[in-house]
Amino acid sequence: MTLKIQHKRSAVKAKAPQPTDLEYGEIAVNYEASDPCIYIKDSANTIRRIGHQPGALVFQGSVAPTSVAPASPDKGDVYVMTAAGVMAASWTGMAGKNVVQGENIVWDGTKWETLGATSNTIATETTAGIVELATAAETTTGTDATRAVHPAGLKVELDKKAPLAGPTFTGIPAAPTAAAGTNTTQLATTAFVHDGLALKLNLTGGAMTGSVTHTERTITAGAFDLATGPYWTAAAIAIPNPTNAVAGMSGLIRLTAAPTGWGTNFSTAPAVAGAPSIVPFYVESATKIRLGKAVGVA
Predict the structure, then answer these.
(1) Which residues contact 29 (CB under 8 A, 6 or more apart)?
(2) pTM for the whole structure
(3) So where are the chain's domains?
(4) pLDDT one-digit tens code per residue, 27-44
C-alpha cells in the first residue's frame, strides 16, 4: 500500500501560514500557479518563505514594444524589449513612450516603468527626455525633428556653404534681375546687362533710329548754368558768364533777338544780322569760352 504524504497547503495566491499553523521545522506549500512557494517555521517561531518573494524582480522574457502587455503581471515582473519603438496602449504607464532595444521594464504593482529610470521619452522642442544624436546622413537630409546635431556633423554641412565674405561660386549661380535703370550696389545679372546694352549704339556699323530731343533752357541775367545742359535760348539781354563751365563742353545758343552784351569770359561777340540766329560755343577753360559765327535760321 502506497503512503501518500501531503503538507499543509493552499492554492490562494500569496496566502501564508501563521506561526500557530506549523510546528518548528514543519513545511507548508502554496501551489498557486503564478506564485508557488514553500513556507517553514524556524526556531524563532517565525514563518519564513522559501522561493520567489512578492515584489522581487523576476525576469519573465523578451517582448516587442508593439506587443500586448501581460494581462495579470506580478509586482517585480521584468521584460526586456526585443526592438526599439513606441510602447503599445496596453502597457499601462508606458503607453506611447519610446523604448530602445534591450531596455528593461518592470511592473511596480500598478503600472509599467523603465527599470532604473523614470522615462525613456525622446526629447523634442517641447518635451524633456533622452537626446539622440543625428547621423551624418540624417544631418544632411535635415528632416528629423528630434535628433540633435553635433559640432562635427554641423561643420560638414557648413563647409558646403559659401562664406559671406569673398565667396567663390560654382555651377550657375542665379540672382534677381534688377529693374531697368537701377544704379545701386545690387548684383547685375546677365539679363540686366543684355537689356542695358540693347539700348546702346554699336561702336561700328550701328544705326540710330527714332528721334533725339534735348531740353532748351532760357538764359537769364542770373541763370546760365552749363551743368544743366548744352542747349540755350536768349532774348535781348546781357548774357552773363556761365557757371560750372568745364573745359571740353560745347553747345548752342538760340538768339531770338540780338543780345545787349556778353560776359567777359566770352571771346569776341559774333555779329547777329537777324533773329532767330544760332551761335555755337566751346569751353576752353572756366574763364575762356569761344563763340562761333551766328547763323540765321528761317
Answers:
(1) 7, 8, 9, 10, 36, 37, 38, 39
(2) 0.35
(3) 8-51, 58-114, 217-296
(4) 999 888 877 888 898 898
